[in-house]
Amino acid sequence: MRSPLVSTFAPAPPGFGCPTLDLDPAIVGRGRALAARVADEVDRFAVGHSTVAIERTVLRLCGVSGADAAGVPWANRVVDAAARAGCLHDGVATAVCAASIAHGQSIAATAAAIAQGTIDLGRRSGVAVEAAQAHARAAAVQGLARITAQRRRRQALLAELGSGVQPLCYVIVASGNIHEDVVQARVAARQGADVIAVIRSTGQSLLDYVPEGETTEGYGGTYATEANFALMRAALDAVGAELGRYIRLCNYASGLCMPEIACLGAFQRLDMMLNDALYGILFRDINMQRTLCDQRVSRRLTAIAGIVINTGEDNYLTTADAVDAAHTVVASTLVNEALARRAGLHTDQLGLGHAMEIDPQRPDALLYEIAHAILLRTLFPAAPLKYMPPTKHMTGNVLRGHVQDTLFNLVGALTGQGIQLLGMPTEAMHTPHIHDRYLALEAARIVFGGGGALGSELQLRPDGFIAHRARQVLSDAVALLDQLAAEGLMAGLARGVFADIHRSPDGGRGRDGVFERGPSYFDPSEAAIDAALAAEAR
Amino acid sequence: MSGARRPDLTRVRAYGDTLDDGQIMLSFSLPVPFGDEAREAGRALARQMGLLEPQVYHAHDLGEGFTYLIVYAISPHTVDYTRIAIAKADAVRLDHDGVIAAWRARHGDRRLRVIGACTGDDAHTVGIDAILNVKGWKGDKGLESYPCFQVKNLGAQVDNERLIAEVQSFAADAVLVSQIVTQKDCHRTNLAALIDLAEAEDLRSQVKFVCGGPRLSHAVAVELGFDAGFGPGTLPSEVASWLVQAVS
Fold first, then answer.
1. Which of A274, A303, A352 is closest to A151 using CA atoms?
2. A350-351 and A308-310: which strand pairing?
3. Which residue, among A473, A441, A466, A191, has the nearest Cα to A354 in the 3D structure?
4. DSSP secondary structure of A219-242
5. B130-to-A84, A160, B124 alpha-carbon distances in Å
6. Yes or no: is domain A162-468 CATH 3.40.50.1240?
7. Could you tell me the pTM of the whole model?
8. Are B244 and B103 in contact (CB under 8 A)?
9. Taking the alpha carbons of A190, A193, A196, A197 in that order, is the dihedral positive or negative?
10. Residue A305's pLDDT is what?
């Protein structure tokens, strides 16, 4: 018996799966019910609020793009103008589209004129609200059509080229220059990579705008821009066509521009996006109200775009103790799942991230790792799950690191993880060199080629260390969810339940950009996204 | 019975399995297509590095006109080990209790105020957390566990300007800056800028400035204007020992 695996994401090769772990269905059900309560409360808050990032996303969907000479996007200028004019609580679309009708210009041209100050949003346009909103709706539907067209294109390419098999091997490129990244990515694809994640500059998550154009600088990566997405997409399509395998592209829909980047990623047919409901709050000190609103809208867009989201629970244990706090990862994946479902994401889009950062010199480290991996796989049998190797315990001894990564890959093979992020031997020393990626891919091929069917061959001892540990972590996770459901997610985050990091509901970056929706609030994409998601759910 | 020869420390060569065999392993990629020419280019490059008898153990076609090589060769070069001098953060290494005792002997109940941050765009708090958090690193407790330290950890992505303001409002005795991201040497620019700011604010002589990270050393730190620098693998107690001896 092996767990059922994802069907539409990428096929599993024969025998690829996870040994059966018996969990008490009542405990699992209770965990999910509690996570649902936590998520419902967040969702109630999110639907009553909007943010500057959400409003900019609305503008982008309606066709606004471009920036001024200083690089400030028109979308930012227009949202600022709406705030100054006192109409932001109505949503930015109504006033902008009224101005578009009044001036007889496209929405994009109107936005540029508002940004340049030649149209004043504070002055009444005399256009009926109904007419303005109909205009906005039509534009948003066009924007959404761009996204669904890209989704259809992906499906066509997957059918034509083939999608690769599980686990999809995921590697990063991070040269800091998009043109070098393209070279690195093409080489990685030739060496067997299935997913190319373009790492962005570490500072970008805190930028409250999306930079424009192709970029050749950044720290630890280069900027995520629509132009960079397009450049990399074209390169991967070309090399994929040559190799006869669709190469997936991944970037970040996180930080202060979470929904906006999700929209741009969807426009440019990204296939995966790092999109966690809690990561920015914990690790970038972004205000929790801001992120909890932004994650909902970003996930609604990734849902209709067919993008697989990757969550970031793997990071919790870089700051908290990997064994003591393992249950926090499990609790968080359940919350992330519940929030993602409320945003309309399908199971095969849930690349819930997990990795346990266990010190490899700890006795039984590998057994703990296997226990946690089986637990996650068993809790989410149909989700692609993204399995990430430890980074905290990479030492600079690149050969030891290669061994650690290989053991980690073996755990991935044994437990049937859908997306395997490949560790680099030089992790913690430098961003990957061209041959670091080759070495990682070659080692992974040996493990998955030789041991991919282990999971369906081996059985767990029902009373053994691994099964016992897995059940213990689950029960601790459910106890934590119990507390979270009682106190609410925001209070829990303030108490530091995840990653040992404490955040207050009104603290952190981007709080100023959150506002309550006014009684006349209008988002022209909302009904169309609802309809698209409802059609999918049928 | 002579046993293995002992090295001449004034003329030390790389060692594989026999004294003075000069064995060296290299691994690198070349932006040239895979083939015999690529292998020969790898050998030629090794010879230009002054290495003898380069042998390409492994060559791999990376595609797109790139070749990966693993090369073994003999290095005829020697170093005089007896003349090696390394700048080290100058302090006697104390244990947990020793640190507390050393500080209290001179300062009684006053606590040494330490502020820590990852500055600039750096979002990686692993290093600063390992040094400051109670849990510490490899069983060596962090500075927060010492009653003689008052610790404030500002976390990631702290601007130099904000750090300086925090140093002033916290009345810090010492600042610990962690820099993990080192792409294009951004850590050096960023660290040097912090010292410039500290000097502009007239803080430089009153506060001890310490930096740490995988690509930092005491020598680099001093070159950048810091009082001390700690490289990879540093334990919290090493930093603690230095602090209680350096802060007057």
1. A303
2. parallel
3. A473
4. SSS----HHHHHHHHHHHHHHHHH
5. 45, 49, 11
6. no
7. 0.89
8. yes
9. negative
10. 96
Q: Which of residues 315-374 of A touch B (CB under 8 A)?
A: 318-319, 321
Half-sphere exposure of residue B130, counting CA atoms within 13 Å on the CB side?
A: 24
Instruction: Report the distance separating Cα A447 and Cα A405, nearest Å.
Output: 11
Token output for A508 = 């952190």
Calculate mean pLDDT across residues B227-240: 92
For chain A, where do the domains classified as CATH 3.20.20.440 start and end? 162-468
Q: ipTM of the predicted structure?
A: 0.90
User: Cis before residue A167, ω within 30 degrees of 0?
Assistant: yes
Q: B192 and B220 in contact (C-beta within 8 Å)?
A: no
Helix (H, G, I), strand (E, B) or coil at A153: helix
- Catalytic, A223? Answer no
- Nearest CB neighbour to B123, from listed A284, A430, A433: A284
Residue A410 neighbours by CB under 8 Å, 6+ apart: A447, A451
Please name the residue of chain B whose CA is at the shortest distance from the CA of residue A500: B133
Task: Specify the pLDDT at position A101.
Answer: 97
Cβ neighbours of B60 in A, within 8 Å: 435, 438
Other beta carbons less than 10 A from residue A131's beta carbon: 14
List the single best residue of B32, B183, B187, B188 to mutate versus A (max A Cβ within 10 A): B183
Which residues of chain B make contact with A284, given a CB cutoff of 8 A? Answer: 123, 156-157
Measure CA of the first residue to CA of the last residue in chain A; give whole Å: 30
> Which member of B122, B124, B232 has the closest CB to residue A396?
B232
A279 is catalytic: yes
* Signed CA dihedral, A112, A113, A116, A121: sign only: negative
Average pLDDT for A348-367:
90
CA-CA-CA-CA torsion sign (B133, B135, B136, B141):
positive
Q: Considering only CA atoms, which of A368, A444, A436 is closest in space to residue A413?
A: A444
Cross-strand pairs, A196: A171, A249
Q: How far is CA A230 from CA A177, A249, A267, in A?
A: 14, 10, 9
Question: Rounded CA gap, A319 and B156, in Å?
Answer: 12
Angle value at C-alpha A109, between A106 and A115, nearest 5 degrees: 140
Distance (Å, rounded) from C-alpha B61 to C-alpha A241? 20
Mean pLDDT of chain B: 91
In tens, the pLDDT along B35-46 reads 999 999 999 999
Domains of chain B in sequence order: 1-84 (3.30.30.60), 96-246 (3.40.50.280)
Q: Quote the CA–CA distance of A384 and A373 in Å, as a whole number.
A: 13
For residue A150, the 8-state DSSP code is H
Chain A hits for B63, Cβ within 8 Å = 186-187, 190-191
- Give the Cα separation of A16 and A168 in Å (integer): 12
**In chain A, % of residues over pLDDT 90:** 84
